[in-house]
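question for whoever is on the cluster today: can someone run the full assembly for these? two chains, 785 residues total. i dont have access anymore since they changed the login thing
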Amino acid sequence: MKPLAGIRIADFTVHAAGPFCTHMLSQLGAECIKIESAHRPDIFRKPHTVYGRAGPATFDQVASNKLSVRLNLKHPEGVALAKRLVGIADVAAESFRAGVMKRLGLGYEALRAVKRDIVMVSVSSSGQTGPDSHYAGYAPLFGAWGGLGHLTGYEDGPPVEMRHVMDHSVGMNAALATVAALHKRRRSGEGSHVDVAAREVASSLVGEALTASSTGIAMRRAGNIDPQRAPHGLYASREGDCWLSIAVSTDAEWRALAEAMGEPQLARDPRYGTAEARIAVRGELDEMVEAWTRQIDAEDAARRLQKAGVPAHVSWRAADIAEDPHMRARGAVVPVRETDGRERMAVGFPARFSGSDAPGIERGTPGLGEHEDYVYGELLGMGRAERERLIETEVIY
Amino acid sequence: MQHDKPLAGIRVVEHAAGVAGAWAGRLLSAMGADVVMVEPPSLCPLRNEAPLFRQGGSALFAYLAADKRSVICDLETETDRAALDALLSSSHILIDDTPLADREGLGLDEAAIASRHPDLVHLSVLPFGASGPKADWKGAEINLVHAGGEGYLLPNGLSVDLFPDRPPLKIGGHFAEMQGGAAAALAALAALWSGQGQYVDASIQDANVAVGAFALQRHGDGSVEHRHTRSFRFGGVIECRDGYVELLTLEERQWKALVELMGSPEWALDEALDDATERSARGQDINRHIREWARHHDVEELVARAQKLGVPMARYNTPEQILEGAHENARGIFQTLAMPGVGDVKVQTAPFRFGDEPLRLGAAAPKPGADQALLDARFAATKREATA
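^ ran it for u. tokens below:
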């Protein structure tokens, strides 16, 4: 069995952050029922032009493995049906703006009334409380609010906007908190309302800078510079736009790098013998390292440096990841077959388990309402006539 | 340990030298687990990692080790290995980031732990995981953010417009390692939920590939992402008179609200721009107008008006602005902790909460060996049982 086998999720989440939370839980074995309607399908299911081309660019990954039902929450009977789904679920997940679920009649108290120990997880931009809780937001705004954007970027340049990694980081944290809440339920019999504010996930990722700043230390963006390490950065290789990341932390790593560069005299040079000395001539060292890397194959150099004990890795493109034997061996990238027979690569769960069945993706993207026979028929025991009436009245729509 | 916290009653032993393992422990401690750091006699190296307080000591450590306990344990010796065993016998999760090659010598290899503690969740947290061809590779933060695919795509937006020829970037702080930590903590709690003691092999690279998932999907769609081209067609990082804002309008009503925010200028009323595809095609032109307009406005005024109209816009907050933020303080996301030798510091307690109230931390980061008695007492108790 997968680790979370037996857990069922009523999944009201949309966009990226919330769906990534339930996507992780689904890969771990939870049964995830995605709730949408033709009136309001997940915006990520629809084609949109934000990436400069009209196509649903981002839906497949986070929707895969999930079951899909149609349910119109704008209809009073739809709300009643949603409660029936929550009644057979362990977790109810949502990612609307704060207050929307309550207005729909599906707030935490309403859900508790139908399932006393429900774990409700709410993912939003700014949390369920506080003066900005009504703010709308997307990943780049979370990064901006939380300080991650301000602290990322070249020293002399503007802040940098965070993209999907920000959304998904929020989802990862939400998944973690949800499983913690399940542990609490197991121990105490009590449910929880998990409140995940995306901007607080962003700020937690620079928490050490916030703590330092609270004592009056000015924290600024620093490009690829590490205040305690040199050489440290991205170095151009002989192939265009192919970069090698190198991080030298110890004197031994420095000596190994110098040897690998074919400059053993540098390893013995007292001007570079300590981290403090190397940091003082950081720019000079960067030039020396790049003079070497510009002549070499980056992948080959990374292998050689790792063998010599120096942390190094090529700045990888998606194609490098998709084709990497290490990634495939770990199940970190997995092939997924869609219902039309098409196979695509997707990202698996980022850990392996020795005792449980391997997490992963077993089904592709569900069509809207694809699993209603199972969910409404088998799980809720609804007869054909009742379902037809609800379809007719656009409750199941 | 507060009894109403979700992980009350769960004990975690953390043997971590890196940020990912320590962050996994920290997330669990924030949720109420009793996390005991096992430090070598040379102490946890994170105690010396930047940023450093002026008075000495690490702000990173103060953040990562808050609400943990510390014992010093020399795992090179048999006695201390036995002491650790005693501690593990009353624990639920072991977090370990020791490089694979060094584990056996410290009694921390998978087989040894499994044979002595079959009910334990043994969580391994390594840069490239504990299995696969790169399992013994080293990875610092900058290597990992680039091994996961996101680094190659950074920066984007205004930054890459200004500096198209510079090398790609890392994200500020320890983003990649913290992804590894969060994913590892999730995996450990899932394993614990299964009721089966087991070995969990978490990889920081895998976690970063996971949160960067859309790049792989787009690759499959035949759309190659590059930092020079993945910028939003308009919006993004916008410079105002006194700082930067982020602006992103994805929906039709948000575009219309943006036009209103800008005072409905003539160029924006062009009917052709009612079509999202056309707006996308004319993105550069639109952004030129937006950037010109924003330069005449202050951040605070603009963001307040934007959010009122339903335009997604946010200030690029500095750390000081977050620490003083009205929203952050209303939600109580920071807790003031007294750090010996440093004074009061603010620490964000957690990235999530359970109910309306924020999670509270029980104590500041521990002094080395502050809880040594815990280790000794448990070892003594086990020895007594063995004698009896």
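summary bc i know u wont read the tokens: Chain B has a mean pLDDT of 94. Chain B touches chain A through 157 residues (CB under 8 Å).
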